[in-house]
Amino acid sequence: MKQTTSTILMIEPTGFAYNPEAAETNSFQRELQDFTLAQVQDIALLEFKNAVAELRKLGVEVITMRDPENSGTPDSVFPNNWFSSHAEGQLVTYPMASVSRRNERRKEVLERVKHACQCDEHIALEFFEDEKSPVYLEGTGSLVLDRVNKIAYAAVSPRTSLVALQHFCDKLGYEAVTFEAYGPAGELIYHTNVMMCVGDTFAVVALDTVDEQDREKLYTSLHGSGKEIIEISKEQTYQHFAGNMLQLENKQGERILVMSKAAYESLTPEQLEHLKAHNEHLLYLPIHMIEKAGGGSIRCMIAELFRKR
What we know:
Elements: E1 7-12, H1 20-23, H2 37-57, E2 61-66, E3 83-85, E4 90-93, H3 107-117, E5 121-124, H4 139-142, E6 144-146, E7 151-155, H5 162-172, E8 175-179, E9 196-198, E10 202-205, H6 212-224, E11 228-231, H7 234-240, E12 246-249, E13 255-260, H8 261-266, H9 269-278, E14 281-285, H10 288-294, H11 298-301, E15 303-304
Parallel strand pairs: 1-2, 4-5, 7-8, 10-11, 13-14
Antiparallel strand pairs: 1-15, 3-4, 6-7, 9-10, 12-13
Helix pairs in contact: 2-10
């Protein structure tokens, strides 16, 4: 079992925009009054294409698929929220809080993922959307997975339900470590991957966003699984998406920690030194428009593809 993969899927946006429906539970989004809709899309597309090119340059296999024109899916650049793949052969699809985001679950994307990963089991959790009292679990936004130790870290929120989480854990054999963490307005933070990242030998975590009653539990689990804990601050989390990182590897087996340029520039020399000790490469990408209007960063743009072992 491995924590990292060298193959990823990214969705090229055609109608990227601020989504007011998603913004109801995502205080990281900003409506940008100084740009037209066309300008927002054009800038986001440039940021996307540059990110793909830089990842490929470092030896990551990037599969790209283009969102259909006029699809009404302004958040499609964030595919990690609606599916995940697993080295045991499972493909999981997830219940999404935003109705507009449910149209991102396209058959052609699923078929491409199944082929690339040789998945032989599809675990469909979107039935939770149709319950009398719907609940949600938004993929590896809601879940930060320690794949080696089979631990699912989850900050409970309107987008991250304990009921759906337990269903995921029962199906895939994970243990859940749950906690409450708070966003910039004191709300429950919308996605776990905004405030933490788990790599093969380390974890980046904004412990000061976590409810005091839950901090020791989270710290003990991370430390007990052998991770060096690298703490980041609330300010780095809220203002610069510093928790929204992802560790990948390239075809040579070198470890790459991917983050946005804003996240990288917010880190202290000491934090960078610790991160460099665990990674051969720190790749930081300018995605300012995607971060501001979309309320997500580079980790959200990357769906990891794990081939069945």
